[in-house]
């Protein structure tokens, strides 16, 4: 088949039941961070700490989606989206993370859900996309068990408020990032460098997921699907001990979540590998049963592959200081050696991530083989590039369009190999606040002028609208 080697196929037809969507996250798009009773989150605090975010950018205004929601909903309808994946800002619902409910926050998401339904778009709601209420972090954050207790209460509130209309509930987005980047590597909020706390956070995020599912099922009066979104590491090995490096990172990055969530157990090798960092005493009796709840669909986030290798150049003590490995990779604790993420051959996106559509096909097939009864959904895939506005006002983003073509081709190939793949959400609907990169990186299929907040559909967005309309990869 033409294009077989480079994943640039066209004319591939997706099933009528396949869901085409796009996605955003609350702190990245909403703005209005101090309006209508919203409390501060860890990302408010982190972004306002000098040196943490590029250019000192914050999410105070972001895309101003909070005030422009109706126009953004119309934009989604114009693109023909089947579904929209958004996240709920916990500090809008419970400003301190526990206790009294802020009704104005609930009302905003209720209007959003109603607006989606009025336009024939399925609401896919994520309870947690990294914006932990700051008072919960002040009390210890995800490394402490009380945060999982609070999350269960929050889930029950949202289930009662929106569970009659939401199409799919997603408990967590990328708990790997919340735990390891927030509490280990320190590049994300709250910016801590504590490997033991990172592993405790892994467990309490897993526990929060399981308890939230139970709470959502108890309070949702409709018939929503239930989900979680994980960012899987598709690994390549380098150097002597490559297989061992891949095993260790697979345990830390992938099986630390799929093990308890989908099998009801932590991998024995993970516990052994991290024995010098923690004794896992934070895992209490009954926790694994609470975590191991059935889900209707497993959310899969994929952007690139990762190359890892064993490295003896740093001690676990240095890990506590947030040491970065050679070649730009981040070292991770093991039992006696460390593993680092190494640079990979290009081409790259503006994030410095390699472009590897074959990795998406490989991941989907692997997950299907590991969990053959588990339906899958691509909940994020996309790319950042330095878009420029043309003289006629259009935004020709050929690199992003090509990236999406290649990854949709990979998804279709996985379907043709028997993977139960239910849909695909492009990241992101809008250019937005890209965490530590501020507004320097643009992922959107819709351009946002951050001076005027004007929206312009890019060429990739027009291409995607054609794909959705005909359910066929355009030429």
UniProtKB/TrEMBL annotation:
Catalytic activity from the UniProt record: Hydrolysis of terminal, non-reducing beta-D-glucosyl residues with release of beta-D-glucose
GO MF term set: beta-glucosidase activity
Alphabetically ordered keywords of this record: Carbohydrate metabolism, Cellulose degradation, Glycosidase, Hydrolase, Polysaccharide degradation
Domain of life: Bacteria
Database matches in InterPro entries: GH, GH_1_N_CS, Glyco_hydro_1, Glyco_hydro_1_beta-glucosidase
Gene3D superfamilies for this protein: Glycosidases
Classification via PROSITE patterns: GLYCOSYL_HYDROL_F1_2
Enzyme Commission numbers on file: 3.2.1.21
Entry's family note: Belongs to the glycosyl hydrolase 1 family.
Name by which UniProt lists this protein: Beta-glucosidase
